[in-house]
Write a structure and sequence with these properties.
Elements: E1 4-6, E2 17-19, E3 32-47, E4 63-70, H1 71-80, E5 85-91, H2 95-108, E6 116-117, E7 125-131, E8 134-140, E9 157-164, H3 171-178, E10 182-187, E11 208-209, H4 213-220, H5 225-232, E12 238-242, E13 248-252, E14 258-261, H6 274-287, H7 292-306, H8 319-330, H9 337-342, H10 345-349
Parallel strand pairs: 3-5, 3-7, 3-9, 5-6, 9-10, 10-11, 11-12
Antiparallel strand pairs: 1-2, 3-4, 7-8, 12-13, 13-14
């Protein structure tokens, strides 16, 4: 595994960062490592709640943060892992939309050439309440106008991440696949209750499918998530099923590999966006051609680091946080050798010289907070 420390350019005033694809880049590469499309939400997150809000009462949260959400979660996670990321998204024509655009373009270096601000359309908003390691969300928003679709011809990219909708094809997915883009798919809850894999027609264009355990079992009718993962490989070459507190299990039909990696035990402050960070970690490892078990371990690690911060997209870790975690766990004398060996690949991945931290944006209490300072 080869990485390099490179500069992100003077425009964003950042120190060097790790490029996980350094050993694989050529002059013939597409301009982007990953392409995504979707809608950007403004997330407002309340943390420090002792329990779920009770009807007819008022609950006070000890913490609060605001950050870009929706497709921004995945885009930010990918960019912070060093991948050149292009996002086609609808942004609201309001202060929330302005904040999200600035946070993604200026703060994270995400390309928004294919994005647009929709005149007269307000930003969708999600309020997330984190308590007891779980979350409850309330969202409001409207679909962007029909004249604001994703580009029919997406930019050339090594990979793209698609969120599949049961019963609906997204034309850009087939277009991207026909140009050699590797597709990674996840899926949301099927509100229709059909749970029919035939309804996920775009799965035929995808290299990997990453549902959670409940979704995988419902789509396949399997009695356990591991059996569901094997069943899914009849439809897609690689199936990755997340198992919550148990970790993740994956099967690759092409190589015959299967792997299971337990979750890292952490005290979760806010799980918002952890699934998106997991997918970003897996995509990074796949594009870098790591073994399946290493990809799973890396994805789980990045997700575990993200839940220790709050704010969805802005909780995603970068290489400095990953390197700091690896140094810390190695310094614990009581650390089980078998646990350390699972992450030994990080030793060869991280550069010998210490990665300089830089002030990453985290979720702020309110939009415009601190402007008078």
């Amino acid at each position: 595994m080869t990485v390099s420390i490179t500069s992100t350019g003077e425009g964003h005033h950042r120190p060097p960062h790790v490029d996980p694809l350094a050993g694989r880049r050529t002059q013939a590469d597409p301009p982007w490592d990953v392409y995504l499309t979707g809608t950007v939400f403004l997330d407002i997150i309340f943390t420090g709640l002792d329990s779920a809000p009770v009807r007819g009462t008022e609950s006070w949260a000890r913490g609060m943060g605001s950050s870009p959400g929706g497709v921004a979660n995945m885009a930010t996670a990918l960019a912070r892992l060093g991948l050149k990321t292009s996002l086609a998204a609808a942004f609201g024509d309001d202060h929330y939309g302005e904040y999200c655009w600035d946070a993604l373009q200026q703060g994270e270096g995400i390309d928004l050439t294919a994005s647009r601000t929709v005149p007269g359309w307000h930003s969708p908003v999600t309020v997330s309440m984190a308590y007891e390691g779980e979350r409850t969300m309330v969202s409001h928003g409207h679909e962007p106008p029909p004249e604001e679709p994703a580009p029919a011809c997406p930019p050339r990219a090594r990979a793209a991440v698609a969120s599949l909708t049961p019963g609906t094809r997204a034309p850009w997915i087939a277009q991207a696949a026909s140009r050699g883009t590797r597709l990674f798919a996840d899926v949301g809850w099927d509100d229709t209750g059909a749970w029919d894999l035939a309804g996920l027609a775009d799965l035929e264009h995808c290299e990997a499918f990453l549902p959670n355990a409940e979704e995988a079992m419902r789509y396949t009718g399997a009695s356990c998530p591991r059996a569901a993962a094997h069943a899914l490989t009849e439809y897609v070459p690689c199936a990755v099923v997340t198992l919550g507190a148990e970790g993740a299990y994956a099967v690759d039909r092409r190589t015959g590999e299967s792997a299971e990696v337990p979750a890292i035990a952490v005290e979760a402050l806010d799980p918002t966006g952890a699934g998106d960070v997991f997918v970003a970690g897996f995509v990074t490892g796949t594009l870098a051609d790591w073994p399946l078990a290493d990809r799973l371990a890396f994805a789980g690690l990045t997700a575990a680091l993200s839940v220790q911060e709050f704010g969805g997209s802005l909780s995603a870790p970068g290489w400095w946080e990953i390197a700091a975690w690896w140094r810390k766990v190695q310094s614990v004398e009581s650390q089980a050798p078998e646990a350390l060996s699972r992450y030994e690949f990080l030793t060869h991945l991280l550069p010998d010289e210490e990665i300089a931290p830089w002030p990453r944006r985290r979720a702020v209490p309110t939009i415009g907070f601190g402007r008078s300072a």
